[in-house]
Amino acid sequence: MTEYAHYGTGAPVSDTKAPQGPVAERWDTRRFEARLVNPANRRKHTVIVVGTGLAGGAAGATLAEQGYHVVQFCYQDSPRRAHSIAAQGGINAAKNYRNDGDSVHRLFYDTVKGGDFRARESNVHRLAQISVEIIDQCVAQGVPFAREYGGLLDTRSFGGVQVSRTFYARGQTGQQLLLGAYQALSRQIAAGTVEMHPRTEMLDLIVVDGTARGIVARDLITGKIDTYFADAVVLASGGYGNVFYLSTNAMNSNATAIWRAHRRGAHFANPCFTQIHPTCIPRTGDHQSKLTLMSESLRNDGRIWVPRAQGDARPANEIPEDERDYYLERIYPAFGNLVPRDIASRAAKNVCDEGRGVGPGGQGVYLDFADAIARMGRKAVEEKYGNLFDMYARITAEDPYETPMRIYPAVHYTMGGLWVDYDLQTTIPGLFAIGEANFSDHGANRLGASALMQGLADGYFVLPSTISDYLARHPHHDAVDAAHPAVAETVAATRERLERLLAVDGDRTADSFHREIGELMWEFCGMARTEEGLRKALDRIPQIREEFWRRIKVPGTGEEFNQSLERANRIVDYLELAELMCLDALHRAESCGGHFREESQTPEGEAARRDEEFGYAAAWEFTATGVAPVLHKEDLVFEYVHPTQRSYA
Amino acid sequence: MKLTLRVWRQQNADAPGTMATYPVDGISEDMSFLEMLDTLNEELTLKGEEPVAFDHDCREGICGACSLVINGDAHGPERTTTCQLHMRSFDDGDTIDVEPWRAAAFPVVKDLVVDRSAFDRIIQSGGYISAPTGAAPEAHSTPVPKPDADFAFEHAECIGCGACVAACPNGSAMLFTSAKINHLNVLPQGAPERETRVLDMVAQMDEEGFGGCTLTGECATACPKGIPLPSIAAMNKEWLRATRKVSR
């Protein structure tokens, strides 16, 4: 066993900055207590925003509208391409347009429960409150949500809840919301209030005298490494699911921005909380470069089943009804096919482990629309899911209107991320993290259609209100001295890292290492985790890291467009992050949400939480590469939603 | 499958480019076109050669990053994005030409990567509704007739990949520009800026050096999202209407 697992425990988190008082009043209280920056002074403040997804795009646009000077970055060629664009199903909001018993409190309750009681109540309640404003904002921007014939907005239900509160734009809700934010951002770019740097990747955080004052970034076209300074830095760089190599993330989504910030002092919370999405297209072979999600909205009308018998190789339509096992409907009669994602994923794994999986390698289950087509007609099914069916047909060369889809779980979202307080500020003053990059709202499992809600809530509404308090209290009118030793050290470290990657000239590609670490993580830190497996992974990761620095081959130079260098540099960070994820999973000897420890389950095989021991968020403090980190616990207090064993039966 | 690839190689924007030939073997028909290129790049890297640069990200047909001209067709033989094109669309032994988007307004960055920032500047010139955060009225205060909402959605599906420009013999961006104008102009929320939007976006489109439309229809044929050709006619109508209204 490596020394890495012998972590120390530091001081618990003493203050989350969440105001006292009734939960429904805390956000008002915080906004009132937050200091404001005089409108005339705002243009003197520069804010760096890294990332242009829902959180970053919304934050950049809003901060600029308020008068701040925003300097924004994305690695893509255009801010419109951030991976929020791929979100399909929808966005939750407690509008109660259906009059079906929904309310802010119910959305709050569902989110805390769905997260398996590992989220902070104050934050979640704020999210539920803001959800209604998001829909108003997006409609005003021209987001073409689905509508009823009367001209009003349509909604649908989604996994883990019993009300119909999900707003959607066919299967392209993320795209439409992102384009809304992108267009708002574009308006500010044209106005000169946002200085946009596309194809520019953040490689490190500049911390001067304990506060975040800028970033080091590389122009991906010229390879030039530059420094950018600001009064505050906002990371909206997304999650770290690509540590698994195969995931539904975009190919270039990466953890570098948050991991470099972690190395500079920002605590990383609950890194082992990753979400495995139940409805993805199964992989076809070793060439597979990524996995494609099929929106969970399909579970509204599709029925999931496998053959009753092991090894039943007949085609789906030759298996009679009484020889099929609609296992979600059987085990969870109340929620049926709409159980939360973690539960649906584990159930699929279980039936496949029993030898009842379908398709190549037995790693798949059927998602069948035959009943829905019979009930609603093919046209209605097309109207609702047409683009998803087309995508499935395109990838698999099978027609889902005729044969059931095959699906299998895949890594999709990371609930963990940089620890933030109620203001979304990390443990480094002046450094904020929003959207998937932070850990704040989803606990141990995120409900469907809640990522878009959180990204936009953080970007449009929360951060713009809380960052003013920081800026008002820390008027950095002194420019950062580019010759400051901290700046020089950060730039030098970045250059040294890239030069070292180029100098190894070994015999293995970046992708081969990425696959290796990904497979290791999927096996030992994926859908089910054990102490034994995690210890194996913790033994193996430092060996892979050592081999990486001996055998990596990066062609070309650093002074040009070099995608191999970009990839290799991201893997450097995955090789460290993976270790922290395994340690976090090892230390949390309970099951909760997406984190399933085989040692901790109920007699029925459901996740068994151990609230007495683990009712906290784990915020890890970095020490050095490969050296044990320090654990800081944030005790979670549940005043409104009392922890119970989650039941969807 | 065994294939011969002829790929455009160009070191940077200023260097001259050339077609280079690479044999590839062991290609599965379940691979996407980009996974086939990944295989080539792994081989090139291990041989100490520079891999082929190409833009790609989501690999599920929605981000609009991938952008290859394959055997002369933008995004290749199927009506989809390059990332959603699978090798089952080709035959064993095929020779496949792979080139970047070709248009004056999309200069080559390296190999198969081009600069599409002109599209961003067209959006910046008016492809938005001015609705500052916090100022929005209640969402249901303005119903939108379903046919209008559907029309808006159909045009909002554009992913900004640029296939329309690459396919057009004139290098015209009218399908792209019209898609955004039609999305926003049909909505009641977009009405206050209806005229300035179309006038400013069309002016920016011209300034970027895109060609005019001669109705060859290649754009709509290449569009992976099915933006319809009449979108351009609708934009022209909006432009004419705006010109008359503004001059009044």
From TrEMBL, chain A:
EC number: 1.3.5.1
Subcellular location: Cell membrane
Topology class, membrane: Peripheral membrane protein
Molecular function in Gene Ontology: electron transfer activity; flavin adenine dinucleotide binding; steroid dehydrogenase activity, acting on the CH-CH group of donors; succinate dehydrogenase (quinone) activity
Enzyme class, UniProt record, top EC level: oxidoreductase
Domain FAD-dependent oxidoreductase 2 FAD-binding, first and last residues per copy: 47-452
Catalytic residues (UniProt): 341 (proton acceptor)
Organism: Streptomyces beijiangensis
Protein name per UniProt: succinate dehydrogenase
InterPro entries named among the record's database cross-references: FAD-dep_OxRdtase_2_FAD-bd, FAD/NAD-bd_sf, Fum_R/Succ_DH_flav-like_C_sf, Fum_Rdtase/Succ_DH_flav-like_C, SdhA/FrdA/AprA, Succ_DH/Fum_Rdt_flav_su, Succ_DH/fumarate_Rdtase_cat_sf
Names of the cofactor(s): FAD
Ranges for region Disordered: 1-24
Entry keyword set: Cell membrane, Electron transport, FAD, Flavoprotein, Membrane, Oxidoreductase, Transport
Cellular component, GO, one term: plasma membrane
Pfam families: FAD_binding_2, Succ_DH_flav_C
Reaction catalyzed: a quinone + succinate = fumarate + a quinol
Ranges where the Fumarate reductase/succinate dehydrogenase flavoprotein-like C-terminal domain occurs: 514-648
Family: Belongs to the FAD-dependent oxidoreductase 2 family. FRD/SDH subfamily.
GO terms (BP aspect): anaerobic respiration
From TrEMBL, chain B:
A molecular function GO annotation: metal ion binding
First and last residue of the signal peptide: none
Keyword Iron in annotation: yes
Listed cofactors: [3Fe-4S] cluster; [2Fe-2S] cluster
Gene3D superfamilies to which the protein is assigned, alphabetical: 3.10.20.30, Alpha-helical ferredoxin
GO BP annotations listed: aerobic respiration; respiratory electron transport chain
Pfam name, any one: Fer4_7
SUPFAM superfamilies: 2Fe-2S ferredoxin-like (SSF54292), alpha-helical ferredoxin (SSF46548)
Domain of life: Bacteria
Keyword annotations from UniProtKB, A to Z: Iron, Iron-sulfur, Metal-binding
Residues covered by the 4Fe-4S ferredoxin-type domain: 149-179
Family: Belongs to the succinate dehydrogenase/fumarate reductase iron-sulfur protein family.
Protein's UniProt name: Succinate dehydrogenase/fumarate reductase iron-sulfur subunit
